[in-house]
Write a structure and sequence with these properties.
The protein folds into two domains: about 130 residues, Oxidized Rhodanese, domain 1 (3-Layer(aba) Sandwich), CATH 3.40.250; about 210 residues, Rossmann fold (3-Layer(aba) Sandwich). Helices cover about 55% and strands about 10% of the residues. It contains 16 helices and twelve strands. α11 packs across α15 and α12 packs antiparallel against α14. About 35% of the residues are buried.
């Protein structure tokens, strides 16, 4: 026998489900899905488009075609994925709105004897819960906000803090972006906004509100990902700033390491710099492009740091964090693992 559950019931019982089965198309699944979900699409991307086009002409014919396609795809999933499952298997099944697609899969699983549950409202209900929770969850935490100029080692220090047992939130890691015009990760596309929201929601739900939460200072957007307004407000209102200082020559060295991939594709680097012409002028940007094409990476990163990143970052930072003037300073000699580990241990000890 199969039953339905609300999103509130599903989240309360989430650890008890043996699997979360998303029956939407692969494209819908790739855009976002519930944490830990597996994709058993009952319609492919192409099949869903075909049924949708037919529906505009004849809902009846579209339903006939859709039913046949769904039945065949469900049969394939049952053949390929359920043969080794025991009768007590308990999946949570959902589609876009908890309608026909998940209803069909849930019915078949229930008829077999599995303890299947269908999510009422489907992904749409889950997404509404994520959005609602992201207005409340950020206000639970007391933040230790790592501030500092570009190349000062904030991300590396955050990773060192995590390695030493501190509770951290890596927003750039979730967004798959370093947060600047050059910050895209090679060969690694950013998630959709919805996917980022889900990843952030999942992590915030797992954290302990009674422990300090270490996070980097961020602007409103990381690449094309927008941070929730409530998180930005919480960082500003509940955050204690810590200024990370690193000598300029060490900052250049760190940038050379983090952006080493551009050495193999200087034209890609130069194309990204085109976006700075409005701010820095053609002459300056063309000089940076010429330096890159000539392989003078230390020179170009040094100028970018002094003339572009530092002025803009500090202006933005002071707008977002009025408490910056009271920030403690953590001075690093270099951004090597030994120095970062020692600083991380010192910072953690300083909170006890």
């Amino acid at each position: 026998m199969s039953y339905t559950v609300t999103i509130e019931q599903a989240l309360a019982e989430l650890p008890r489900f043996d699997a979360i089965v998303d029956v939407r198309t692969p494209a819908e699944f790739d855009e976002d899905h519930m944490p830990g979900a597996i994709n058993w699409p009952v319609l492919s991307n192409e099949e869903r488009a075909t049924v949708g086009t037919l529906y505009a002409e004849s809902p009846f014919e579209a339903r006939k075609l859709g039913a046949a396609l769904v039945a065949r795809n469900i049969a394939r999933h049952l053949d390929e994925s359920t043969q080794d499952l025991e009768k007590g298997w308990r999946p949570l099944v959902y589609c876009w709105r908890g309608g026909q697609r998940s209803g069909a899969m849930n019915w078949f699983l229930g008829q077999i004897g599995f303890r299947s549950r269908q999510l009422v409202g489907g992904y749409k209900a889950y997404r509404a819960q994520v959005r609602a929770d992201l207005t409340e969850l950020p206000g639970r935490f007391n933040y230790q906000v790592l501030c500092g100029r570009t190349g000062s080692g904030k991300t590396r220090l955050l990773q060192a803090l995590q390695a030493e047992g501190a509770q951290t939130l890596d927003l750039e890691g979730l967004a798959r972006h370093r947060g600047s015009v050059l910050g895209g990760l090679p060969g690694d596309a950013q998630p959709s906004q919805k996917r980022f929201d889900s990843l952030l929601w999942e992590q915030l739900r797992s954290l302990d509100a009674d422990r300090p939460l270490w996070v980097e200072s961020e602007s409103r957007k990381i690449g094309r990902i927008a941070l929730p307004e409530q998180l930005l407000n919480a960082l500003r209102d509940r955050g204690e700033c810590l200024w990370i200082a690193l000598p300029d020559q060490e900052r250049v060295q760190l940038l050379l390491e983090d952006y080493a991939h551009f050495a193999a594709e200087p034209e890609g680097f130069c194309a990204l710099l085109e976006g700075l012409i409005e701010l820095r002028g053609k002459e300056t940007v063309h000089r940076w492009q010429a330096q890159a094409r000539a392989g003078n990476w230390a020179e170009v990163f040094g100028e970018l740091m002094r003339l572009h990143y530092d002025p803009g970052y500090e202006r933005s930072l002071r707008n977002h964090y009025p408490q910056l003037d009271q920030a403690r300073e953590a001075a690093l000699d270099n951004a090597q693992p030994e120095s970062l580990g020692a600083m991380a241990r010192s910072l953690i000890a300083g909170l006890h």
